[in-house]
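Entry 12.
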Amino acid sequence: DSVKKIDSDYYASVVLKETFDRYTPTTKTLTKIMEASREIGSDYYQASILSEVLELEELDGATIDAIIESTEDIGSDYYQSQILKKAIELEDLSSTSYQELLEAIADVSSDYYMASVFSNVLDNQLDADVQEKIIVLVNDRISSDHYASSVLSKMLEEQKLSDEASERLMEAVADINSSHYSSSILKKASQRDDLSKATVLSLIKSVEDMDSDYYIAQVLQNLARHVRRLDDADVRKAYKNAADQIDSDTYYGRTIRAID
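Predicted 3D structure (tokens):
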């Protein structure tokens, strides 16, 4: 309560820092510090407090969640993203902490900073529900094709995706306006050796929204080895139907010959 009486953000931050510098704070005390930090108007000083709390040893889940939630009061995307990245570095984040983290990331306005935080999150192997929520957030909140594709590409590279998550990701790829960026994601996906029938079908279906013969042909030709590997009638039919979109005889011929 004493923090509310201090007009200076600097001195308010000093008082709060002294609380955990001098003593070993309990979870209850740290929660109160988080609440008090929200009264500080300066993004810089609020972020500095949260940063120092994150450096304390043996933080419990409740405190980590409170820190992550507190970042939503930071107006600066830069300072908020810095604290979120620091929280991501903590070992063994709980599923609850990841849910709090995704809610906080959704509060970031900048495509650049949002994508940079997602990139750090994807350095950890995530549960399927967290993967799918990230895909939804990227699709709903990142307007830049460049930054959306960078996150989705990294997810394909770093995460072991379920068929459901792969299908959701392909739906997000279909919403990317640029054929260049969407095709780069699909080509990267085709480089994996463990693609299931369901995933290959989703990848093939994704070319339906492309308007370039060149990019459609490139994606399908990269998928051709999976069509041959699976040797499945449904996959082969889907591939040929997708190839029928190609108007260029040259690109069409190369694409069809790729599965022979």
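Annotation: The chain has a mean pLDDT of 90. The first helix runs from residue 9 to 22.
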